[in-house]
Model the fold of this input.
Amino acid sequence: MTKDQESAGPALTAEWPFPVSATLGSSVRAAGIERELRARLSFPDRSHFALEDGRFVFRIRASEKARFEIASEILSDALEAIDTLPVLPGEVEDILSISPRERLKWTKDGRLRSAGTRTVKLRGRAKAVTFHVFDPRHIEDLLDRDLPAIWREEDAQAIAEARKRAAGKAALTRAGKGASRPAQRGGRRRGAEAAAPQLEGWDAFAADGLLR
Done:
């Protein structure tokens, strides 16, 4: 509570337990949940909302009863549905211990299923940013079955097989080029011999020794 609130007398306070299960074990998602709840309040009320000792607290002057009731209802409704709050990209990476590259790859090929997109305008950026969000139940299932580890192994095998195929193809190409070169050189020699002028009486001319 601020000094102004303390000097104004008793305060109205509402508390809610922090929804630990909704974080899926991620401190990044825990911070995201707090940020989401704060964003649902009116701007003046956000400074009266805090996370204290494992619980959310909204505290305001007793004279602001109408604001208190509105804000309390907003927070209560939001917390009831907090388990369904979409998982953001950074939260997915923290929950599943994956890299941004893996998240993008697996989202693109459908293994990491998108639950839609969200567009936000970040501070300091002229353009809005659109990104995929994910269903928390889907992310929880991936975590429980440790699928990212399986996907990494599958991807490593696919890369190794692709490299092996590429090496075999390159070897065949080199072998094909090597076999064609002697034929081409022989062809050029035969072509040169065929193209040489055949002069009439040349053999007799050479036999007379006139070229010695």
